[in-house]
Amino acid sequence: MTDKISPEDFERLADLASLELPAEEAEYLRKELNNQMLSIEVLESIPIDAETGTAAHGIPYDELNSAAPRKDISFQDPNRDEILKQAPELEDGYIVVPDISQEELE
Amino acid sequence: MKTCDLPAYIVADLIKTKQVSAVEVLEDTLERIRLVDGRTGEVDAPEATSKEDLSTIHAFTLVTEDHARNQAENIDKLIKEGEYPGPLAGVPYTAKDIFTVKGIKTTAGSKILSNYISPYSATVVERMAEAGAVMVGKVNLDEFTYGSSSESSAYKPVPRNPWDTSRVTGGSSGGSAAAVAAGEGAISLGTDTGGSIRHPASFCGTVGLKPTYGRVSRYGLIAFGSSLDCPGPLARNVTDAALTLQAIAGPDPRDNTSAQVPVPDYLQEMEKDIRGLRIGLSEEFFRVTYFDSESMELVENPIDPQIRGAVLSVAGFLAQLGADVVMNVPLPHTKYGVPTYFVISRVEASSNLLRYDGVKYGYRSEESFADLRELYRKTRGEAFGVEPKLRMLMGIYLSAAQFDKGYYELALKARALMRRDFEEIFNPRGKYHLDALLTPTAPSTAFPIGSVYGDSVMMQYSDQLTATTNHAGIPGLNFPVGFDKENLPIGAQVLGPDYSEGVLLRIARAYEKVTEKESWREKRPPILSKNGN
C-alpha cells in the first residue's frame, strides 16, 4: 500500500509549517500522518446527496448565536507596555528579529 | 469531613453564614494539594519514576497560593462589611492551563509558552472572580488540549488518575478532572473540543459539562479548534456544575461567537422532575467503528459491556422516575465523527498555531539564525511537542492547495449530516421528538499510562462517543454512574438540543437523587485513604 504522504510531501509540509525536525522524528510523524489518512479516507464512503451543504460550524451563525457588531469606537489598549514586555527581545519599543529573507525576483 | 471534600454550594453557604472563613477553606485545599499532588508539572522535568511520583496525582502546573490568599481575604472582608460576596464565595477552584489569567503564567502545557505571563484574563476567569470563587492554581492538560489522556503535556510528571495512579486521567482536561476528584478544588474550568471535559470527567468519576457552542465565552481561551472549543465546568456533583455554569455563561462582546440567548436559572431548572421527558438510546453509541490498517476494512467493536450495562441501568432508573425511554434511535453518521474530527480540528488547529513564532511572546530558540524564517523553524521545531506538530502538519496537508483532495469540504458536509442527525431526533414535530439522548461517554474506563500514547489514531478513537456533539455544537453532560470490576469510574452522558443545559442538569440531578444511597457513591479515591486524609 503506498503512503499518501511521501517523504518529499512531508518535507514540503514541514516547510509550510515552519518546523525544523530531526530525521527520526520526521519519519515517526510521517508514519502517524499516513495512519490518520486511513481514517480520514473513510469519509469518502459516506453516502452524501447533492443537496447536502457544508457546515463550517454546528450551531447556525445568526443574530441569536453571535455577538452584535461592536460600536465603531477606537481606544488605546491600557496594557501596551505589558504586552510589549512579552517579546523575547525589545529595543526602544521595537521587537528585535533577525533579517527577513531576501530573494531576487527575476 | 474536610471542607475540601464538601460540595461547593455547601462551602459557599458555610462561608456566607460565617461558620468558616474563606481563608480556612483555602488552607484545607492547600493542605490537600500538599498531601496528594506530589511534584508540580514542569517543562523538561523528568517523568514519574520514584515511588512517590507514581503514587501522587500531579494535577497542577502552578499552585497560585498568593493569588488565592488575596482573593480569599477579600471575600472574608466583604462578608465582614456586610456586602454580598457572590454565589461561589470562597469556593476554591482550578483553571485548566489553557485559560489566560492576568499576571500569571499560562502555558497551554507547552514549552512554547513556558515563559508566558498573560497581560489579560479570560472572560470565564473574570466571571469566576466576580462570583467570589478563589483560584488555587492552573492544572495540567494535553499540550494545547491536543489529546485524550493528558500524557502529551510538556509539563512532567503528567497527571495521574486519583482512582488508580497507574492510569490516565483522560483528556485533555485531565488535571481538571483529577483535581476535582481528589478534593484539590471543588470545581475546575475545562474545555471540550472533541470530548475533553466529558472524557476525563468520565475517567475520574466527576460531573463534566460541555455547554452549547457559544453559551460560554471563548475570550482568553487559547484556541485549538475555533468552531469546536467550549469552556465548561467539572465538579463532584450536578449542583456545583449548575452553579458554575450560571456564573460563567452569557453573552460577551469580546467573543464574536458568543450567543445572545438569555441565560436561564439553571438551579431552578435542575430541581424539576423528569416525568414525561423523552430520553433516547442509540445503538450507534454502544460501539466503536474504526478503519483497521491490517485488514484494510471498517471494523465495529462493541464498547466495554460493563459500560453498556451501567448506561442501561441509568435508563432503568430514569424510566422509574417517569421518563419515557425510547430505544433504537438512529444517528447513522456517528461513526464518521472521528474521521471528520481529524479533518476539521486539524485544519483549524494548524491556523491557530501559526501565531507561535518566537517573535512577539513565548519561547524563542537560543540558536543563531541566518534570517527570520530560520528563527520560526528552529523555535517551533524545538518548542512544540509531537501532538501540535501532527496537528499542524495534517491541517496544512488537508488545506494546502497543492495537496487538496477535497477532504475538508467532505468533512464539512459530514458535519452537516451529523448536525442533521441530532436535529431530526430532537425535532419537537419529528418522529422521535426527544428531550435528550443518553449514551456512554467513553468506550472504555481509564487505561494504563503509556498503553495508548504514541498511537495517535487509537488515542483519537477514545473520543468517538463525544466528538459528534462538538461537530453539531449541542451540549453534553457527563455524570458518574458507577464503577467497573477494577474499581474505575464509569460515566454516562446526556446530550440535548441547543441551549438545553437546564434539561440535561435536570436529568443528571434526578439520577443523582435517586441513587444517593447506592453503595458505590460511598467510594473515595484510594489516594485519599492514605496520607492522613
Description of the molecule:
The complex is a heterodimer of chains A (106) and B (533). Chain A has helices at 7-16, 23-40, 80-85; strands at 90-91, 94-95. Chain A is mainly alpha-helical and 106 residues long. In chain A, a hairpin with a 2-residue loop joins strand 1 (90-91) and strand 2 (94-95). The mean pLDDT of chain A is 92. The longest helix of chain B is centred in the C-terminal third of the chain and has 20 residues, at 407-426. Chain B is globular, with a radius of gyration of 22 Å. The model of chain B has no long low-confidence stretch (mean pLDDT 96). The chains are: A mainly alpha (106), B alpha/beta (533). At the A-B interface, helix 1 and helix 2 of A face helix 11, helix 12, helix 13, helix 14 and helix 15 of B.
Structural class of chain A: mainly alpha
Instruction: Report the uncertain regions of chain B.
Output: none
**Poorly predicted runs of 5 or more residues of chain A:** none
Gap between N and C termini of chain A:
42 Å
Strand content of chain A: under 5%
Average the pLDDT over all residues of chain B and give the rounded result.
Answer: 96
Q: What is the ordering of alpha helices and beta strands of chain A?
A: HHHEE
Alpha carbon gap, first and last residue of chain B = 9 Å
Structural class of chain B comes to alpha/beta
Count helical runs of chain B. Answer: 17
Proportion of residues in helical segments of chain B = 25-40%
Strand order of the largest sheet of chain A: 1-2
Please provide the count of β strands of chain B. 15
Radius of gyration of chain A: 23 Å
Total count of strands of chain A: 2
The largest sheet of chain B is: 11 strands, mixed
